[in-house]
Amino acid sequence: MDTFTLAATSFIIGLSLLITGKKDALRRSFAAFCAALFVAQTGVFFSNIFASPIWTAIEYAGTLAVAPLAIRFFFHLTQKRSYLTRGSVLVATLISAAGLAALFTPASQWLYFPLALHAYAYCVLIICYMALVVHIRRLPPSADKRRLRYLLIACPIALALCAADYLAHLGFGTPQISGQVLAALLYLVLLVIAYPQLSELHDFLARAFVILVSTVTGAFIFYLAAFFFSDSLPSFPSVIMASFLIVISVTPIKMILKKIFSYFYPDSKDVFTSLYEFDEKLEREKALLLAEMAPVFAHEIRNPLGSIKGAAQYLQTEASTEEQQKLLDVIIEEVNRLNSVVSRFLDYARPFQMKVDAVNINDIIRKAVSVIRANRLTENISVVLDLNEELPCVPADGQQILQVILNVALNAIEAMPEGGALTFRTARLETDTGTDVAVSIRDTGSGISAEALANIFKPFYTTKERGVGLGLAICQRIVREHGGSIRVKSLPGQGSVFFIRLAAAPKS
Q: For 272-310, what is each residue's pLDDT tens digit?
């Protein structure tokens, strides 16, 4: 169980670093180190169960991989300022490769071969630790230095606990907890490298205390349940180890699941944060606060804007030169633009008041296309309508859905300054809960970058020079208020397509 704890912890931490968060060199190198540790511990775990040389070879291979990957991790942890270099990583890699090749020769049968492998790994870890010591001594007083010092202190404490645990196991046959200690050390390293905002000792101690209390509470609950529903109780160390593993695995697993859910269900990102009524109440209070503040905010801005515009218009009548007229035109234009920004902010902040009626999505799309053509925005763009005429009506506010269609279409037109094709397509989808109406709006424009795609529905995020960044945020809010979903796919240089889905009627 002790080996399993360390293997599972290293696997979960490594996987969570690869799937979530920033994929910088430091995190990738620590993830690779955790992967090597996972392989080594997996080999140890299964070699104790199955008498097979394959698991022993896997253990040796993982142990050999630990050395170069540890140097690579500490090379990035010390910000390439210690005596560890890329050459050190290369040398350790060559030595480990030679050791790996030796696994397939009679040398692997040498009595002291396992001892040599582990001694090699331990020596490399000591060298890495000393490189960290040198690096910390060179650092000026800072939060980063304090955080690394905690790691510097934790490593020898963990080593001392593991040594004492090993001696106690030899002398008294007590269950080993070294894996648990090393798992806690890995978790501390994760906190140090992944959460730079944690710089004070009490931050780390508070988290350690939470983990301790959670582990003991989990063990207590397990024993309580086992007492009532089981005839035999497992050993206390086994339960503590299992509880500890579950506690430190919850957050990484949650991060992994959140990443998976956001990929397959992009509109279900709140599934991990809005599970309780309290969270929903907080979200409602935040929305109400924004709705209350928005009119005051708009009033305080619009009053001086009105004065500025009035003064500029008066000065226009007194302007004597063409240059003065141009400057005053710029002032009036910018005042109008700011007034438009305020209006859109009010649209986003105030609660929607929907006038729900049975509307035909095809009619709304045709109306949107007529508005666009009336403003002569599609002179060099071909508009394609591929509409399913057998669509059911949707309970919705027609004006708000029209606003969504127009906003997405206008963005598509702006993405095709040299011309292209704008395609509107509707479809009827039968689901387990009823019938949905699907709308897709496709353009052949410049596309959207991966960074912009991740933030495209965030309020005030825009890639336009004079954009406000509220148009798509308002569209998303309108669609969600109607119980629907909106998402986008795009390839830079090839175009984008927005998918809107609304429920037509539930199954009776």
A: 554 444 445 555 555 555 555 666 666 667 777 777 878
CA nearest to 131, candidates 155, 160, 115: 155
**Beta-carbon count within 10 A of 231 CB:** 5
| E strand or H helix that includes residue 441 | strand 434-443
Q: Do 462 and 439 contact (CB within 8 A), yes or no?
A: no
- For residue 103 the two structure tokens come to 């696994």
pLDDT, tens only, 332-362 = 877 777 776 676 666 665 655 678 888 899 9
Measured CA to CA, the distance from residue 499 to residue 266 in angstroms comes to 12
Instruction: Give domain limits for the chain.
Output: 2-264, 277-349, 357-506
Whether the Cβ atoms of residue 487 and residue 499 lie closer than 8 Å to each other: yes
Model confidence over 394-448: pLDDT tens digits? 888 888 898 899 889 988 888 888 888 899 999 888 776 678 899 999 998 888 8
Distance CA 152, CA 127 (A): 13
Longest dimension (CA), the chain: 101
pTM: 0.53
DSSP for 165-186 reads HHHHHHHH-PPP-HHHHHHHHH
* Helix boundaries (H) for 48-102: 53-77, 86-102
- In the chain, pLDDT over 70 holds for what percent of residues? 81
* AA identity, residue 399: Q
> What 3-state class would DSSP assign to 422?
strand
Tokens at 487, concatenated: 């998402």
Q: Which CATH architecture has domain 277-349?
A: Orthogonal Bundle (1.10)
- Beta strand residue intervals within 135-254, DSSP E: none
Fold of 357-506: Heat Shock Protein 90 (3.30.565)
Task: Look up residue 377 and give its amino acid.
Answer: L
Q: What's the full length of the chain, in residues?
A: 508
Top CATH class, 2-264: mainly alpha
Give pairs for 83-87: CB < 8 Å, separation 24+.
Answer: 83/131, 83/134, 84/127, 84/128, 84/131
- Report pLDDT digits (tens) over 163-216: 887 787 676 666 677 887 888 888 888 888 877 666 666 677 777 788 788 888
**Rounded mean pLDDT, 469-484:** 82
Is the separation of the CB atoms in 444 and 491 below 8 Å? no
Q: Which of 314, 6, 398 is nearest to 185 (CA)?
A: 6
* 332 CB-near residues (< 8 Å, 6+ apart): 309, 312, 313, 316
